[in-house]
Amino acid sequence: MSGSAGVKVTVWNEYRHERNDEQVKAVYPEGIHEALRSGLSSFGYEVGTATLDEPEHGLTVEKLNDTDVLIWWGHQAHDEVDDAIVQRVQERVLQGMGLIVLHSGHYSKIYKKLMGTSCALKWREADEKERLWVVKPSHPIVAGLPEYIELEEEEMYGEHFDIPDPDDLVLVSWFEGGEVFRSGVTYSRGQGKIFYFRPGHETYPTYYREPVLRIIANAVKWAAEERGASPYYGNAKPLETIVAKK
Amino acid sequence: MSGSAGVKVTVWNEYRHERNDEQVKAVYPEGIHEALRSGLSSFGYEVGTATLDEPEHGLTVEKLNDTDVLIWWGHQAHDEVDDAIVQRVQERVLQGMGLIVLHSGHYSKIYKKLMGTSCALKWREADEKERLWVVKPSHPIVAGLPEYIELEEEEMYGEHFDIPDPDDLVLVSWFEGGEVFRSGVTYSRGQGKIFYFRPGHETYPTYYREPVLRIIANAVKWAAEERGASPYYGNAKPLETIVAKK
Amino acid sequence: MSGSAGVKVTVWNEYRHERNDEQVKAVYPEGIHEALRSGLSSFGYEVGTATLDEPEHGLTVEKLNDTDVLIWWGHQAHDEVDDAIVQRVQERVLQGMGLIVLHSGHYSKIYKKLMGTSCALKWREADEKERLWVVKPSHPIVAGLPEYIELEEEEMYGEHFDIPDPDDLVLVSWFEGGEVFRSGVTYSRGQGKIFYFRPGHETYPTYYREPVLRIIANAVKWAAEERGASPYYGNAKPLETIVAKK
Amino acid sequence: MSGSAGVKVTVWNEYRHERNDEQVKAVYPEGIHEALRSGLSSFGYEVGTATLDEPEHGLTVEKLNDTDVLIWWGHQAHDEVDDAIVQRVQERVLQGMGLIVLHSGHYSKIYKKLMGTSCALKWREADEKERLWVVKPSHPIVAGLPEYIELEEEEMYGEHFDIPDPDDLVLVSWFEGGEVFRSGVTYSRGQGKIFYFRPGHETYPTYYREPVLRIIANAVKWAAEERGASPYYGNAKPLETIVAKK
C-alpha cells in the first residue's frame, strides 16, 4: 500500500490559472497544490506546498534540502521560473530528491533540463475520454490499481512525445480521437528518481480522483525509497597491488 | 532499510556439494540454504527452505503459493530438477512471486526458461579478488551499500554473459584476472520480479558476508513489493460507444 | 532505405487457414507466406518459404543455416510444431539468425520460448480501425514511414501483453474499441535480433499494404546487420600478469 | 561492414593540447581531429573537421546542416564553448544528426545538456591496461570486432559514471587498478542517435588503433541510418468519427 511515515513531499504549483480563470477556479478554488496536498496527506505523507510567486518560487535551499519528493505542476508561466532555481532543483534531484512531473509540466524548464530533449507532443482540448492502461503490472507505482483507469474527460496528449526512452514504461493512454501516449514513465538521474504522469488538465477535477491520487502517492513512495551511497567522483586511487607493481 | 514484516521467503538449495565435498562442508556445514535462512531471518523475514532431494524438490503447490520470494542456488544437478516443477515455478513467477537466482543458478532450468537464452558465461576458479561496483545507485537493491563491495576470493564469471538486456543493471563486477561481469541484474516477467546476483561460490564463505546478505535482503524487499492488478487475458469487450455504433 | 542484396529470408507459415477457410482463401489464395515472399522480394531480398506440413516443417538444419532472417506466422496449430524444431530455431537465433514474429505468432512455441513469459493478451474480432503510432522515430525499422499508419480493419490486440520489457518500443497501436498495444517491439537474444510486429489477421489484406511490408522489410535489414564476434563460453585464462603472480 | 558512401562526418576537436603540450604534440602532431579524419576516411566516409578557435567554433548553421554525424573531442576548454552553439548542436541532434562523444567529451556542455546529469566519473592517469569487453554482441557498433579489445596504456575512467541508463550498453571496460566503466553506451534523443565511447586520452596513440577506429566507424554508420518521419508537434485534429460525434 501507498503511504509511508516520515516522507516529506513538497507540491510546487505555478498557481496562475486558478486565480485568473473562472473555470479553473471553480474546479480548484484553493489551487491545484492544495488539492494535491490534501489528497496526498491522506496517504500519510507530510506534505507542504510552494508556488511560483513566492520568493525563490518557494524553493529555498532549506526547503529543498528538507524535501524527499518534489511534485511539479506548471503551464503558462514556465519561462518565469528562474534559471538559478531550476539548476538548484536539478542538483537536488541528482543528489537523490525524487521528482514527479505532472501534465503540462512536461514543458517545464526542470523537466526539459533533466531529459535533454524538447519534450514536445501533440495536444487537443476536446473533452475526450482517456483510458490509462497498465503495461507493467509488476511496478510498485500501480500497486493496488486495476488494469486501467478511465477519465471521462481530459485534454488529449499524443505521440510522438519527444522524451528519452524511459527506464520503465508503466502506463499508456488511449484517447477517443485516435491517439496514444506514454502517460506514466520513470527515469533515474544521478541518485534521483523521476516520474512523469500525464493527467491533470486544469479544467477537469482529475486530481480529486482516487486512482489518480493513488498513482501519485505510489510514485512518492517509490521515489523516496532508500538508495545506495553517494558515489565519489574525481581522481581515484588504484588497488594496492597495482601501486606496489609500479 | 531492508526487512519487512510478513514477507515469506523460501530458500531453495541443491544441497549436494555440502554433503559430498569436505571443503564445502567445512564452509557450509548445514548447507548454503541454512546460511541464507539464518542471514535473511535477521532482516525480519519469515524464511523457510527447500532442497532438491525432498519430495517435489520441496516445492509443492502449497509451498509456492505461500512463498512471496523464492531464492535459488543450484550447480551440479540442474538436470535432476523435474521439468514439471520448473514449469510450476515459472507459472508462480508470472503470477507475481519474486525470484532471486544466485551464482551458478545462472545455468538452472528455471533461469534459462525465464530468460530464453543460453545463460552461458566464462568462468575460472583461481581465488581471485572481486569488486562489485554499483552502477545504478538510485536502486533500492543497493540501499545502505557503499559504492562497491570487495570479496577477497571468489570464482570468476566473465562476459559475455548470454542474458537478455536487463530492466536494470545494478552491479558490475571487476575481477583480478582481466574480466568484467554484469553481476546484479533485474527483470520483470509477467507479474513477477527477478534478480540475478553473481557471488556465492560454494568454497568461499560469501553468504556470511554482511554486504552480500544485505543485497539479497534488499532484493527480497524489492521483489515482494505490492503490484498492480492481475491483468485479464482473452476475448475482450469494446467501449460501449463502439458497440452502439455497429 | 530497406532492401539489401544478399540477405536471405525464409517466411514460415502454418498455412492452414488459407486451405480450410474460404474467407481466408479469398484474401490469400496462395497462402500468407506467398504474399510475404512476393512483397519482400520487391525490396531486393532473396526470399524462400517453409510451411508446417513439410517434412521438419520445412526447417531443416541446412535451411536454417542458410537463413539470415526467419519470419514466423502461425495461429491454430502452434501445438503441432515439434519441440525439437523449436529448439533448433532457438539455437539458430542465439547464434545470430534474425527472427520476425507476426501477429498470432505471439503464441507460438518459439516466441514464448525466447521471451520466457506467457505472451498472453486481449483480443477481439470486430473489424476495428487500428492506428500504429511511431514512438521511436530514430529507429531504422520505421525508416521512410510516416508518423502513424492506419489500417481500416484489423483484429484488436490489447494490453496487458505479457512480454518482457523490450529493448526498443517502436510502435504502439490504438484501437477504436478503447485499447492500446505495444505493436512493434525489439529484443536481442544471444547474437540474434528479434522483432515482434502485431498486424496481420488472416481475414484482412494487411500483408499487401505497402507500409506494412516496408516495416517488415526494414526489420529484415535491421535483423541481418553484421554483429560482433561469437563470444567464447567456458573456462577462461587470466591475464598473464595474474598468472605470473600466483 | 563499416563504411557507407555519402555519409558526411564532421570531427570537432578542442585542439589545444596538441598545440600547448609537447607530449601530446608528439602523438598527434596535426591534432586529434586530423588523426580521426584520416582514420575514418579510410572507411569511405566524407570527413571534415572543425575546431574551437575557428569562428563559431567551426560549427556554422550551414556546416551542421551538412553534417550527418558529428564527433566531439574536448577536455580543458569545455567552458569556452559558446552556449548558443551548444544549443544549435542540440537542436540538430534532436532533428536527426548523429553525435559521437569521445573520452573527456563526457564533460562537454553538449553531452551534459543531452544527458541531463552531471556526467561525473572517477579517473586516474597511471598508464593502466584497459580491456573493453563486448556485452551486447548483436549490436552493429561492434560489427567485425573480437570479444574484447585491449589497450596497453590508457587513462582510467571508473564508475559510478553519472549518466542516464543507456538505450544499449555495448562495451564495459576493465582497468588494471580495480575499476569498471560503461565505455560504449547508446542513446536516442529526438530523431538523433548518440554514442559515447570512452577511450582516447590525448597522451596515447589510441585513435590510430584499428579496432578503436572501427568502433567509431561502425557508430557513424549506425548513427547515420535512415529513420522515421519527423513527428508533428502541437495542436492536433481528431479522427473524423469523433468530430462527427460532437
UniProtKB/TrEMBL annotation, chains A, B, C, D:
It comes from the Bacteria. Pfam families: ThuA. Residues 8-223 form the ThuA-like domain. This is Trehalose utilization protein ThuA.
